[in-house]
């Protein structure tokens, strides 16, 4: 592994890593690291780990919807540095992004078919990726999940090279950590088991033992996390409602992300479903071709294509079973690096087998595709920079929220909030982040008991944010027409309502 990551052969990776670090630093220079509702959960849980030794969030609810590792990771840094996540978050993410870039370059250097030009192109695609830059500009667990993925790829490759049990155990431990960073880490477990099953070099008894070893270690931390969740919260991953989006809709949403990643579509999503189908089929074709050609999956390229295929398929299918946010660039970002490897590396191997005249045509075509791709990425990056350089990263650290009339009003000490009144909000995480006031989210429309509890609350306020509207929660019509709350204060971006009997 140390030979893989050696600086001697990876000066270009180091330069790219420094570029990635600088971009994240510049993106977050104005307002600091980006913070969304998930980030409020992560940061408050990290603080409660240190102050209370409990995995609870700002509502004092047990952390169940999210795995435990990322807030534990943040709390460990807080313990060592004495700083808050919003203080060290930008430097942490810039460092993580630079490590991901360097490791990606080091892996590319070890591909079966090498090219310095190809490596430079891949590194530039990663550094300028709008999706990855978005992820590493926010306090999101994907920042470390992607790093775990790359380390898994390295250790699995090392295992297949020497069939070292130490390498297999290391891969299993990394996978276990990935699973308690994001629940989608089970896709890495699936990838590892599939790779072990498809390998034909080992005798069956040894292969079976290694599969059992990986299968016991890799989900261990996740099992502990899920059991703990059930004991303290009554559910393993929180209340997960049945999905109301069909498979075709989720394929369209995934395809829309791919359209944004590929500049050739210019934001046109009419063929998004077909693009998703093409990418999945293309990955499956490469996977099957490489396996049946060599009857093993031991190269970095093959491990990457296996994960990309399994991860994308899993995310689309699970979104059709369990309800969560729309599939977006953030959710699919762990597949970006394996995907660009899988969809481009075949050009290098093909160019080395064709005649010189055809090779020139292929190089010209590949260069044209690369330039178009990078032009699209640079255009998206410039648009992002134009928005964040003076306003900050979108989220609660952005000027729009920090200087919101509603926020500035509720931050004042002399407020008309009466004692004994419950404070509800459609974005209660924002209320807590800016004021530290205890309160509740407005109830979910589907949760009849919580809706009734809200209706029965005889002394309460609602702080409404126009930018925090959540279609899953009761809305303005319910507040004014059903609950019949009285308007206390109207703002350009929100309002405060009161109810008393």
TrEMBL record:
> Which residues are listed as membrane-spanning?
61-80, 86-105, 117-133, 139-156, 168-198, 210-227, 271-288, 300-319, 361-380
> Which UniProt keywords are present, listed alphabetically?
Cell membrane, Glycosyltransferase, Membrane, Transferase, Transmembrane, Transmembrane helix
| Predominant location | membrane
Q: Which GO terms describe its molecular function?
A: pentosyltransferase activity
Keyword Ribosomal protein on this protein? Answer: no
**Which compartment or compartments is the protein found in?**
Cell membrane
Q: Which GO terms describe its cellular component?
A: plasma membrane
What protein is this chain from?
A: Glycosyltransferase RgtA/B/C/D-like domain-containing protein
User: What species is this protein from?
Assistant: Ginsengibacter hankyongi
Origin organism lineage: Bacteria, Pseudomonadati, Bacteroidota, Chitinophagia, Chitinophagales
């Amino acid at each position: 592994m140390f030979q893989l990551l050696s600086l001697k052969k990876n000066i270009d990776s180091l330069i790219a890593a420094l570029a990635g670090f600088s971009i994240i630093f510049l993106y977050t220079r104005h307002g600091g690291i980006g913070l969304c509702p998930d980030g409020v959960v992560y940061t408050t849980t990290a603080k409660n780990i240190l102050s209370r030794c409990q995995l609870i969030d700002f509502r004092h609810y047990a952390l169940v919807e999210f795995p435990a590792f990322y807030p534990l990771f943040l709390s460990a840094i807080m313990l060592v540095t004495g700083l808050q996540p919003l203080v060290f978050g930008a430097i942490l993410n810039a460092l993580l992004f630079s490590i991901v870039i360097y490791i990606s370059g080091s892996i590319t250097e070890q591909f079966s078919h090498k090219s310095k030009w190809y490596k430079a192109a891949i590194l530039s695609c990663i550094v300028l990726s709008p999706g990855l830059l978005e992820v590493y500009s926010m306090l999101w667990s994907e920042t470390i999940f992607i790093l775990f993925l790359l380390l898994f790829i390295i250790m699995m490759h090392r295992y297949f090279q020497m069939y070292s049990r130490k390498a297999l155990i290391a891969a299993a431990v990394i996978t276990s950590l990935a699973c308690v960073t994001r629940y989608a880490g089970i896709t890495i477990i699936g990838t590892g088991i599939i790779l072990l099953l498809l390998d034909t070099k080992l005798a069956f008894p040894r292969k079976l033992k290694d599969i059992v070893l990986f299968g016991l270690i890799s989900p261990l931390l996740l099992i502990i996390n899920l059991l703990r969740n059930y004991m303290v919260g009554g559910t393993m991953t929180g209340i997960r409602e049945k999905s109301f989006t069909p498979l075709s809709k989720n394929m369209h949403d995934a395809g829309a992300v791919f359209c944004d990643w590929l500049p050739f579509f210019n934001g046109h999503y009419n063929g998004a479903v077909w693009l998703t189908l093409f990418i999945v089929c293309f990955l499956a074709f490469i996977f099957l071709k490489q396996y049946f050609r060599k009857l093993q999956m031991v190269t970095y390229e093959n491990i990457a294509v296996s994960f990309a295929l399994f991860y994308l398929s899993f995310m689309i299918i699970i979104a059709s079973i369990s309800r969560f946010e729309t599939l977006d660039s953030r959710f699919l970002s762990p597949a970006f690096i394996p995907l660009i490897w899988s969809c481009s590396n075949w050009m290098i191997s093909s160019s080395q087998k064709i005649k010189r005249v055809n090779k020139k045509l292929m190089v010209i075509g590949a260069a044209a595709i690369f330039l178009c791709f990078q032009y699209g990425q640079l255009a998206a990056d410039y648009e992002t920079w134009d928005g964040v350089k003076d306003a900050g990263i979108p989220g609660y650290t952005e000027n729009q929220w920090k200087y919101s009339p509603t926020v500035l009003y509720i931050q004042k000490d002399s407020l008309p909030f009466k004692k004994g009144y419950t404070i509800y909000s459609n974005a209660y995480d924002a209320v807590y982040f800016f004021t530290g006031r205890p309160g509740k989210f407005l109830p979910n429309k589907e949760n009849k008991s919580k809706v009734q509890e809200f209706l029965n609350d005889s002394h309460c306020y609602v702080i409404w944010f126009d930018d925090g509207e959540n279609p899953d929660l009761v809305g303005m019509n319910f507040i004014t027409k059903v609950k019949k709350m009285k308007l206390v204060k109207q703002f350009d971006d929100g309002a405060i309502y009161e109810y008393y009997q």
